[in-house]
Amino acid sequence: MAASTQKTSWADDVDELEHPKNEDFIDENGIRTVVEYTVNDEGKKVKITRRIKRTLQKSIVEHTVAERQKWAKFGAEKGKKAGPDRATTTVGENVALKLSAGNKVGEAEPAPEENVKQQLARAGAGKVVCRLCKGDHFTAKCPYKDTLAGLETADAGLGDDDALHEPAAAPAVGAASSGKYVPPSMRGAGGARVAGESMRGSSGRDDLPTLRVTNISEDTQENDLRELFGIFGRVARVYVGRDRETGYGKGFAFVSFEDRAAAQKAIDKVHGKGYDNLILSVQWSQPRPEQR
DNA sequence: GATGAGCGG
């Protein structure tokens, strides 16, 4: 084992051979671009370009970690400047772990069923096929969405034919006896659903009383606006218009209230008022173009 | 001055 001094690691060799040089830089907008070269299943070389917008969080690094970053480098890196050298070090993004009900742990390979889906997908490669009526539009835009949507679940217990022939009529209660769980909002596609219509169909959060707030500073956050408008009533939704690339605000936002009166009050009170050294403009928003 | 993202392969 008295070996010759091999300074480079085996990993270096592999990288050199297989891949052209990877790139990693941050442009003037603060957008980081990472270019990777890799080899795919078919043995073809693939170039992967990822553009990562800067994070708006002020402090994403724990104090103790920040301290450590100031340590002088040692060993082979001795004398190099502080901070990760992108040529040798991969810096991971912060990963937020999201847990949700029904999350499948360690979900393995696709079931046989999956192949069917894939075949369907391939048959219409590049085409749009509605899952509900097989038309050439997105499911979300299906003209029969309202009538067919709830039936997807109910069908299973009913047999497709009947349901499709008489959609609006009333597959109704039968579904309940199928043994399959049907959420309350979906029960009784015909009559009973009218009562619960507010949740799912065409109405719902889309027609919440919404204000457009303009002339906000570019770093105004959703929370700032919640805070500002929350005093008038329950705020259902806040959207801040941002540049998708940079993450900077574009100077406007939408604030939806649950209660129209509260929204009106907010207009009266906030429109023309100063905020962040800017004069806010608050008015009713125009509904976004057709979205069903 | 400015009227939303993303879903769907």
TrEMBL record:
Subcellular location: Cytoplasm
Gene Ontology MF, one: translation initiation factor activity
UniProt keyword annotations, A-Z: Cytoplasm, Initiation factor, Protein biosynthesis, RNA-binding
Main location: cytoplasm
Source domain of life: Eukaryota
A single cellular component GO annotation: eukaryotic translation initiation factor 3 complex
Gene3D superfamilies per record: 3.30.70.330
Domain RRM, residue spans: 209-287
Pfam families for this protein: eIF3g, RRM_1
Alphabetized PROSITE patterns for the sequence: RRM
Stretches for region Disordered: 1-21, 187-210
Any single biological process term in GO: formation of cytoplasmic translation initiation complex
Protein's job: RNA-binding component of the eukaryotic translation initiation factor 3 (eIF-3) complex, which is involved in protein synthesis of a specialized repertoire of mRNAs and, together with other initiation factors, stimulates binding of mRNA and methionyl-tRNAi to the 40S ribosome. The eIF-3 complex specifically targets and initiates translation of a subset of mRNAs involved in cell proliferation. This subunit can bind 18S rRNA.
HAMAP family tied to this protein: eIF3g
Subunit structure: Component of the eukaryotic translation initiation factor 3 (eIF-3) complex.
The family this protein is said to belong to: Belongs to the eIF-3 subunit G family.
Name the UniProt record assigns to this protein: Eukaryotic translation initiation factor 3 subunit G
Gene name, Swiss-Prot/TrEMBL: TIF35
